[in-house]
Amino acid sequence: MTRVFNFSPGPATLPEAVLRQAAEEMLDWHGSGMSVMEMSHRGKEFISIHAEAEALVRELLGVPSNYKVLFMQGGAIGENAIVPMNLIGKTGKADYVVTGDWSKKSAKEAKSYGKVNAAASGEASHFTAIPKQSEWKLDPEASYVHICSNETIGGVQYHWTPDTGAVPLVADMSSDIMSRPIDVSRYGLIYAGAQKNMGPSGLTLVVVRDDLIGHALPICPSAFNYQTQAEADSMYNTPPTYAIYIAGLVFKYIKAQGGLKAMEAHNQAKAAILYDYLDESRFYRSPVAREARSLMNVPFKLKDDALDEAFLKGAQAKGMIQLKGHRSVGGMRASIYNAMPVEGVKALVAYMKEFEAQHG
Amino acid sequence: MTRVFNFSPGPATLPEAVLRQAAEEMLDWHGSGMSVMEMSHRGKEFISIHAEAEALVRELLGVPSNYKVLFMQGGAIGENAIVPMNLIGKTGKADYVVTGDWSKKSAKEAKSYGKVNAAASGEASHFTAIPKQSEWKLDPEASYVHICSNETIGGVQYHWTPDTGAVPLVADMSSDIMSRPIDVSRYGLIYAGAQKNMGPSGLTLVVVRDDLIGHALPICPSAFNYQTQAEADSMYNTPPTYAIYIAGLVFKYIKAQGGLKAMEAHNQAKAAILYDYLDESRFYRSPVAREARSLMNVPFKLKDDALDEAFLKGAQAKGMIQLKGHRSVGGMRASIYNAMPVEGVKALVAYMKEFEAQHG
């Protein structure tokens, strides 16, 4: 068995130790005589798995006690509707900061539920930078301000936390959750699809401050209502049990590695190897402004687009896959989430040098 | 390792062969160097897994070509809102036939989206029978008629297909999908959570006739809009990839067993062992009318409620778990889906006889 270096933007590579444990426990979890997949979500075995996963989220992210941790379904695209259905009713309007394809999609979807104010947009820079907060046009009456902390397609990431005063800050952290320490108390709500840094697709993490719960629009489905789910401990409907179990194993792995500070150091080191090489090379380049460069998704361009196919083919032959950039921006993209080992990035840079030597 | 006989109503027992294969392929699916969990949903590997799962659904259920097969999220409770958000807009109203806790919940949720007519209810019989169609008060202008083909809590199941004329029949088949052959052409839409007969929780199967797609209310989230998902081959948002993979393995297992006719014979044989014993016993009894008895969920009562605890404890000691009935009806419930082997039911009846001999 040879494992590849998988640079997919998501679903993405997972720690090998987690996959090994999942394989070993597949037919019989801890002597229960069952797979986790087969467990009633109301049984004591799964309740313990669920409680441990929640406790680890609280510990790793430092979630204050006045926030609920919910495990939901529908991914971040689901939350694009679920967030406004739950929060926009307070004043009927919300601010959106658009920094790329994902936050653009979020803003568009929210329009079905209230008035959406485009508080700022990075469109002028072709989404290669994040607008400074001094340029944002915030509405003090907004129900919330929505940002996307890391844009997987453009590869821009906030390296600062916006200050939205009394208006709750809502962040889609799908692609950088658990990659670095954050101050949860600065946010009203954080959501994230699991399939980048936490586990399999089909699970959404929501961390929401208590006072934001209970204002859902009447058309909000019960299964996607934060109040219903908070009151039922995320079990108003059957939760995605196996995905929660895998995420719990990933959380334990992160903790054993030293928690989010260790993850941040690991991610900074990996990204530096790649960006340093991009900056010194005359064959490759990063299109993103230095202060907004993502530690998770690193888009880059070759000097000549016509070489893209050969580059991808050569990478594939060396066991490095999913390096093709999103069709909307072209070029390449290396997604280097928590579970990408430094060896993967070193192997990529070694290959890039070799390719440059051949084609430069 | 000793595997238990797991009588959970869902998530529920899965075929051991499926779990073994999943364990073996966990770190490296078919030489890809990745777990299925790690695969991009846009990559050729996962696209092949997804296409095969869909093809097997079409083959096993005999889905006509003018129906779409969608893999979604949110479970049946999610669909309680998603169905009316997509379908009720046609005339603004819908008929619901209430035969137990699940269809009652469906009818209640639909009221947020249009006018709900309670066309019939089994409440007078305490949900131990299904009202005859001659007693239903159907509205010819309804956008659809909703039924639940099998109620997991009360243990009643339709053994006939309602005739709703030109009005589309919508069925929640969460707990009996793939357990017997059905004529899909008699339905406008079928939905089912995966966690009883198909795989892990977190995956919803939707089979919907083409002409019912495209009438969603403006407040329907894109991720839950049948049109958006049909146009994107269920990949408008990242689908629950691992759950689809496991469901695909289960579908292959069902096919290898002889398909849905073989499943029906297997399920009839298992249920007969249990019901025959319940009918001959003076210690246990089935509360359900004979013509409505479920082949999937068999609730039963002991002569004396005070013995319930001892019964459950004794069963657990023999490796038979999750036999406690739902709190709303009390007593016992044996859920005997496709993957429950006949040995499990025989072991249960042997234990019931032993318990009766001791306490009768």
UniProtKB/TrEMBL annotation, chains A, B:
Top enzyme class: transferase
Textual note on the cofactor: Binds 1 pyridoxal phosphate per subunit.
HAMAP family to which the protein is assigned, alphabetical: SerC_aminotrans_5 (MF_00160)
Entry-linked Pfam families: Aminotran_5
Lineage: Bacteria, Pseudomonadati, Pseudomonadota, Betaproteobacteria, Burkholderiales
Identification of the protein by name: Phosphoserine aminotransferase
Domain named Aminotransferase class V: residues: 4-348
CDD domains according to UniProt: PSAT_like
Localization (cell): Cytoplasm
